[in-house]
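Contributing new records

If you add data, match the layout below exactly. Sequence lines come first and carry their own label; structure lines follow with theirs. Keep one chain per record. Anything else will be rejected by the validation script.
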Amino acid sequence: MVKKVFVLDREWGDPLSAYRFCEELEDGNILYFETVPFSFPKEAMDKMWKKNGQDKRGQGAFHRFAEKAVTFLGGLLKPYSGEWEYDALFRCDEKELSSLHLDICQKRLVKGARILQFFTNMHPKDPLHWITSNSFEQILLLFGGERGVQLPRIHGPWRRRLETCFPFLRQESFYDAFMRKLCRYLKRNEHFQLIAPKLEWIFPPGSCWAFFTDHIAHASLTDLGLWKQTFFIPQKLLLSPYKSPLAILERQMHASSFHSQILS
């Protein structure tokens, strides 16, 4: 069950708290901030909400907010910040968030890196309503393989040697390919959207929250004023890489391969 972890001012910059927060994230929980956790003028936030970063004044606020968010999270989640990568801050698309889904980057290959997203409700008055549902592991058991989305094949050492000698044989990361298929499957599966267990969350104006959106199925019932910034956390920076979707998928692939060999 997903839980909301309140982040208190006195915990910012504390090394022990940094590891605890990373553990909470990797366990599938939400880090919650009652207000924007760094100094930023409210009038600038209002400008971002109204202008959507389209004019020069709104664009300046847009970049300052993104820079402050990166700096703040770099201190709060110190174990991750050394080699993480991040995308620009942008306003969320209503269609993108309206159905329960897991996140995968459409513009780049993540190859198993975790997707951490930092959200902010920029709306001056209205709260945002969200729902969360099954974890990746639960979804994989429900819909992985013949039940929905075919699991990737395990290539033997001969194939890996060929790919090393002839890079043109390398295909898209099996992880990215599978996750994209799974995300499309979930969004189109009306039965899952209807009967999946749902936990509702309310995020007041000015609040922020962060979680691994590749781990927990989620959807937004309202999106006015929702902004997000995406961070990519490599496997080697994770405290518990065995909890990651990549590790879970690989275990399921090997279990499926072993089961097939037994039956044959």
